[in-house]
Amino acid sequence: MIDAKLNTLLTLIEAQSYTKAAQMLSLTQPAVSQHIRGLEQEYGIKIFLKGTKGMVLTPEGRILEKYAHREAALYRNLLNDFESYRNGIHGFVIGITPSAEENMVPRVIATYCNLHPDTKVTILTDTIKNIGSKLKAYEVDVAIVEGNLQEEGLHSLMLDTDHLCLIVSPEHPFAERSSVCLDELKKERLIVRPSTAGTRRMFDSYLLSCGESLQNFHVILEIDNVSTIKDLVHSNLGVSVIAHSTCISEERAGTLKVIPIENYKSIREINMVYRDDFGQKQILDELCQIYRSCNGV
What we know:
This protein is α/β, with parallel strands linked by helices. The chain is 45% helix and 20% strand.
């Protein structure tokens, strides 16, 4: 069970009031204060800044909050696993990045679940950095990411390779082109992923290698939702550079046109990442087999 004092801390941060936190926890206000003082004495820190409006965490307080959330997540996972075991269900959590969510990964996971009716999978979508943190904190069991997570205690199994491409509307002047150069792309209304996205970092690195910067391009929108980006491009409201695996079905259907960027041949891996103590590698092997079958390999 999560430490009662840490649970009090998380509730207090959420409530932003000792009185409200006490009501939410069915405790007295002095008891809430005692829990916070107990944490400060135990770790030799101050949790909240004094003389500021609201409940503002100190740097040490933010660290403690992060680990409190992790402990709470572990406890929730423990309860969920007990419940699943009692119901004869094997459950695990897979963390995926937004680009991975837009390719065949969810279909592959759903196919696996249909082949194993006693399995329940929860999918969490987040940035590669956050997924790596969740994996190390046991909040997810497996991560499926573009690129890799180079951390001690983590291992990877390559699922596929991918590359970035320019996508445009079938109505765009580039639609029938065999390729475009960067100077031409500078004149276009560009829709990009946030700087935290793996595809964005790859594109930024490529621009840097060419002595260019995204600041030299006409960026009209920065958005993390890949489906929305594809819809906007299909409506000819801009062009974008995204992972090819996320737009294969649209390319085949003719709703988007994929155009190579001259002299750009960057390849990246899509990996399944797991911890040392993940004891069900046969699940990953089967997911790989299903993925390659769905991909016609």
